[in-house]
Write a structure and sequence with these properties.
alpha+beta; 3 strands; three-stranded mixed β-sheet; elongated; YefM-like fold
Length: about 80
């Protein structure tokens, strides 16, 4: 995790840190915060939403553990 003083955050983040998908720890005199890109935040929101759907997470985990031969290479629509 990258650490910056609050005065250097804007310049550093906009000059490339947002592109690296690495969180930035912003240290203030009383509190700290973590800044991430909007793309990363949206991905987190989507993951939380998908995990909130009953049985979806379990279904995905079961499919990930299934042997490859259970899936057809030829899909007929």
């Amino acid at each position: 995790m990258t650490i910056f003083l609050i005065t250097a955050v804007k310049q550093s983040f906009l000059n490339g840190s947002a592109l690296s998908s690495q969180p930035i720890l912003i240290m203030g005199s009383k509190n700290n915060a973590v800044m991430i890109s909007q793309q990363d935040y949206s991905a987190i929101e989507e993951t939380i939403y998908l995990n909130s759907i009953p049985r979806l997470s379990k279904s995905i985990q079961e499919m990930m553990q299934a042997p490859d031969d259970e899936f057809s290479q030829n899909i007929s629509w």
